């Protein structure tokens, strides 16, 4: 029998083992354990059964800026995912989201929408700056983006993390990718004169909200509302 089909059956039994009927739950658990022993299926393989991946491009950035990486982490946390950057030789990097069931696809979609909004808001802000020094314009643009992210981060606190899902994702990553490395980028340190820059970034993010789907029927629908 195909190993994946066996894992499917084990997973169904484990779901039945959560039944409110004690006899039914005990029987389902015994069946799952028996199949795992018979076919030498490890617990980690069952846990990672519903793990999926989804990607979002880096919009041409060969080395994604700090604010892009920070946004991917915020979105991943909101949807109980892990966010990674993968890069093939001589190719632009890709943001990869790994999560349970639909979560990875939703995270990738949400990241793409918010990334476009933040990049556009940052560009518009920089275009309005009466500053000739290119490096200073970039610096203020980064401070603006970081303030935007700070305001968006407030919505993440409304989402409840699923530790079971996180453990399953960790198992999946180890199985498929082995050890991963931290991709470190330092945030731009704001100056004392950047009050207006920070305030502009906060205001630009005021109209953006994240919504977690409430049930199966809404999981594939839009998740970003009140976009600026």
Quick rundown:
The protein is mainly alpha-helical and 228 residues long. It is built from eight helices and five strands, in the order H-H-H-E-H-E-E-H-H-H-H-E-E. It is elongated.
Describe it.
This protein is mainly alpha-helical and 228 residues long. The chain contains eight helices and five strands. The chain has two domains: 3-41, no CATH class; 50-225, no CATH class. It has helices spanning 3-16, 22-38, 43-47, 66-78, 103-127, 134-156, 163-177, 195-204; strands spanning 51-57, 82-86, 94-100, 209-210, 224-225. The strands form two sheets. Strands 1-3-2 form a three-stranded antiparallel sheet. It has a two-stranded antiparallel ribbon with strand order 4-5. The longest helix is centred in the middle third of the chain and has 25 residues, at 103-127. The N and C termini lie far apart (52 Å).
Set down the secondary structure blueprint.
Elements: H1 3-16, H2 22-38, H3 43-47, E1 51-57, H4 66-78, E2 82-86, E3 94-100, H5 103-127, H6 134-156, H7 163-177, H8 195-204, E4 209-210, E5 224-225
Antiparallel strand pairs: 1-3, 2-3, 4-5
Helix pairs in contact: 1-2, 4-5, 4-6, 5-6, 6-8
Order of helices and strands: HHHEHEEHHHHEE
What characteristic shape results from the CA principal axes? elongated
| Low-pLDDT sequence parts | 214-228
Helix content: 40-55%
Q: Gyration radius, to the nearest Å?
A: 22 Å
The number of distinct helices, counting runs of at least 4 residues, comes to 8
Strand order of the largest sheet: 1-3-2
Number of strands: 5
Strand portion: 5-15%
Summed over residues and divided by their number, the pLDDT gives a mean of 77
Q: Please describe the biggest sheet, giving its number of strands, its sense, and whether it closes into a barrel.
A: 3 strands, antiparallel
- Helical/strand content category: mainly alpha
Number of domains: 2
């Amino acid at each position: 029998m195909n190993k994946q089909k066996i894992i499917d059956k084990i997973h169904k039994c484990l779901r039945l083992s959560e039944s409110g009927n004690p006899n039914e739950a005990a029987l389902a658990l015994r069946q799952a354990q028996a199949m795992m022993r018979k076919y030498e299926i490890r617990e980690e393989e069952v846990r990672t059964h519903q793990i999926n991946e989804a990607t979002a491009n880096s919009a041409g950035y060969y080395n994604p800026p700090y604010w892009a990486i920070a946004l991917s982490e915020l979105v991943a946390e909101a949807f109980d995912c892990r966010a990674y950057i993968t890069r093939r030789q001589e190719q632009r990097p890709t943001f990869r989201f790994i999560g349970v069931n639909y979560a990875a696809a939703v995270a990738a979609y949400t990241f793409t929408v918010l990334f476009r909004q933040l990049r556009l808001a940052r560009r518009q802000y920089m275009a309005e700056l009466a500053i000739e020094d290119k490096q200073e314009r970039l610096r203020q643009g980064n401070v603006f983006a970081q303030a935007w992210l700070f305001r968006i981060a407030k919505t993440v606190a409304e989402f409840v993390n699923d530790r079971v899902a996180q453990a399953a994702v960790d198992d999946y990553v180890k199985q498929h990718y082995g050890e991963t490395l931290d991709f470190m980028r330092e945030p731009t340190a704001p100056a004392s004169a950047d009050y207006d820059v920070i305030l502009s970034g906060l205001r630009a993010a005021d109209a953006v909200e994240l919504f977690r789907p409430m049930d199966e029927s809404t999981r594939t629908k839009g998740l970003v509302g009140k976009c600026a």
